[in-house]
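Q: Entry one of two.
A:
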Amino acid sequence: MISHRTTRFLAAGMLLVLASTGCTTVSQAESTQGSGASGSASAVALGVNEAARALLPADIREAGVLRIASDPTYPPFEFYDTDNKTLIGWDADMGDAIGAVLGLKVEHVPATFDTILPGLQSGKYDLGMSTFSVTDERRKAVDFVPYLQGGTGLAVAPGNPQKLSVDATSLCGKAVAAQKGSIQSLDILPAFSKNCTEAGSPAIDMQFFPTQNDANLALTSGRVQGVMADSVSLAYQGKLAGGKFEVAQGPDYEPELTGTALGKKSELLPAVQAATAAVLESPTYAEINAKWGLPASTQITPADVVLK
C-alpha cells in the first residue's frame, strides 16, 4: 500500500465519466517512430474519446502530434528493439494508448533520463514517460499523471553471496550504483549512507551512471556490489542479461506511484488525466501489463490519476 496516495474524489469522478463516454471508432490514432514494434495493436483497439480530446489545447489538437520523451535504457519500460532504433516497452505502449484515446500521433523521442524533466520545463517535449516516481521534490518542478505503482529493489550477483538487501545496514561500506537523476541516486542511497555514518559504520560508496545499462555493467563487471532501481525493471533486466544478476529477496522499498510527467501547469494536464483514466478503465491496461510481465500489484485505478 502506498502511504502517500491521495484522491481528489470529484475530479476522479469526472475522469471516470470521461473514461466511459464519448468513445468512437471513426478515427484511430497512428504512431511514428517507436510504436510499430511496440505492438500497439491494443492501443489501436481504443477508440478516440471525444470528451478527453476536447480537453486538448488547440495547438496540440491542430498539430495532431504528441512528443513523448523516454530514456531507452530501462527495460521493460523503455528500450530499443533489435533494430537498435525502434523504441519499445511498457511506456511506449502506454504512450501509444494515451495518444489513441486523444486522437493524436505519438512521436517517441529518446533522451537521457536526467534531461527529460528539464526538457519538459523548456517545452522541448510534451510528456515524459520514463517510469518517473512521483515525489514531492519533483512535483515542485513538474506535474504528474500516475499510471502504476512500484518500489525500489537491489540487483546483486547471482545467489547474493554478500547477503545484501534494500537496507542501509547491509550496504554500509559497499559500492552501490544507481542511474543519475533517479530517486535512488537523489534520495534513497544518500539517506542510507547517512544512516551508516551516523551509526559509526563506513559510508556507502555511491556510484551514479548516466544510463541504467552502465549501472548494470558496473555490477556484472564487479565494480559495484549492488544496483538500486525499480524492482520490476531490475528483474526483467536480469533475465535479459542471462541471469548475470538478480534482485535480492525481500519486499520493495517504499512503493510509490509512478507516472507521466508534464511541464508545470501544462495545458495538456486535464486531457492526459482523462486519457489515462480511459486507458486504465479499458482492457488495454491489463494487456500492456501482461505483455511486459508486470505483476498485478503494480496496477492502479482511475481514482489514482488525479493528485492533490
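Q: Entry two of two.
A:
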Amino acid sequence: MDAAQFSGQPLVILNPAANRGNMHRYRAVARQRAEQEQAEYVETRLQGEAKERALQAAREDRPVIIVGGDGSVHEVVNGILTSGRRVPLGIVAAGSGNDFAWNTLKLPHDPAMAVERAFGGQMVEVDAGIANGRYFANSCSIGIDADIAVAAGTMKKYPLMSGSRLYYATSLKQLLFGYGRCPWLRFELDGGAQAGRAEERRYVLMAITNGPTYGAGFRINPSADHCDGLLDVCSIDYRPLLRALKMLPIVKKGEHEGLPEVTFYRVKSLSVESRNPVNVQMDGETTCASSYRIEILPGALLVRV
C-alpha cells in the first residue's frame, strides 16, 4: 500500500473522557508526535464529534488517528466509512475494553508505542461490518451480552470498575437479574457453507464478530480472522440459569466449542428477527431493534498496525 497517496495533513482526535479522564500521558505523547508530523490535533467535547471530524478528514483524503476507547473508535470508523473513502486509520487504545485494538489488531498497550504505530505502522486492509446502516469494526451482538453492554455503561461510574473486571461483574449481574429477558430469535445465514434459515428459538446470545473477543477479552469467536472477508457468529441456546452461570467462565476463556448449546457459523451476511425489540450492541455502543441485517465489508478499513 502506497502511503504517498495520503499526503494530506493527518488528523489526531483525542477523547479527553477516555480512561476515566486520566489522559495526561496519552495527551502528552499524542500532541508531541502531532507537532513533529505537523498534524492537526483536536480534543472532542461532544458525543458524535469524533465521527463528524473523521468524516470530513476522510473526504479530504487525510489520515485519521484516534486516541480513545472502543466508543471513540466506533465513531471514527463510522465517520470514515460514511465518507465512502478509505484513508489510513491509526488507533491509540485508551478505554476500558480495547478489544479491537488489543485483541484483534494486537496493537501495543503502551501509549508511546501505540502512537508510533498509529503514525508509522504498516497499513493493513481490515474487514468491517454493517448492521442496519451502522458500521462496526469488531462486534455486533444481540441478547444478554447486549444487555450487559447497556449495564456496563452504568457501572463504569463505580470505583475500580473497568476492563475485564467491569464486564465480568456486569455479566454476572445480568445473568442473575436479567436472564429472563433472553430473546426469541429467528435468523437466516447467507454466503457461507452453513447458509440457511434457522427455526425460531430462544437464545442466551448471538454474537457476530470480526475479531476473537469482545467485552474486554471474552473470547466469543476464538478463531475469527479480521481479514478473511467473513463474519464469525456464535449462538448460545437458552438453558436454565444455573447452566448459564457455569458456562460464563468457559466462554470467557474461549473454551466453549463443542458444548451442546453452542453453534459457530462463518458467513458473509445474516438477517435476524426477534419477537420483541431487544438491545443490540456494536463495538460496545447500544441501540434497540426487533430485526436487523448484518453484512461483512471485506477490506473496508485501512489500519496502521
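A: Comment on entry two: The radius of gyration is 19 Å. Residues 80 and 202 are 36 Å apart (CA to CA).
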